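Holo prediction — fe (ii) ion.
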Amino acid sequence: MTTHFPPSYISGAGIGLRSQHYQYILKHHPPVHWFEILSDNYLNPGGQPLNYLERIRQNYQITLHGVGMSLGATEPLDLDYLARLKHLAAFIEPAHISDHLAWISVGGNYLNDLVPLPYTETVMEHVAKRITQAQEFLGQRLLIENPSSYIAFKESTMPEWDFIKGLIDKTDCNLLLDVNNIYVSATNHGFDPLDYLNAIPADRVKEIHLAGYEERKEYLFDTHGYQVHPPVWQLYQTALERFGAVPTLIEWDTDIPTFDKLMTEADKADALIKKVA
Ligand SMILES: [Fe+2]
């Protein structure tokens, strides 16, 4: 395929591409460094979303972020899904592909949520094999995102950060570190988010996510429907000091605001990234 896209490289702050903003972006060419797409929405050839994406890609860098790999599930990896994702990646030439440390399918049925895993050596071995298989199939290293969680398994024998470090050692994968997820999980489970940040190998963090949670009575709920909260900005600054000027995404998935509001959040992240660049 002859490509007319600019080479793939991201830096600074990006914004999650949502259909509500297609027209605005094409008309106004806002000065966003890059967009992240939810790859699962663009897997059908010939669809309108793909048409918009192709036009937007001509002026912007893109990353692919998916929910469909179900890397923690026990059934075989969905090779048809991976083949369609590979096809999309060959077309769009993203800076990278990411998915979650979670599972969303059981017995061929798909759940609405990303479900966390028990953190044991056996599960690590299992997930590592699947990440390796997915990386080999796609022909590139993946970024794995840490989940936000509300439950923990009593079977777990190690904290999430040790599980992630083990996966990196076994698969050579990189990380998409969601700082909001760390804050939400730390609050819900009562651990120190700095212990998490300090344990993560700095050279593996290739992207950061920021989003807004909702405060429920007894826990924080990761809705991606709010501005980034002050304690998450604070944790983010600590993360940048430790990991350097990592490209950072503003994730906003529910109650999608105006593009201007997203730009304000991205500008705020950009200013912090520049401080450590
Ligand atoms: Fe995220």
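READOUT: The pocket of fe (ii) ion is lined by residues 145, 178, 209, 251 (CB under 6 Å).
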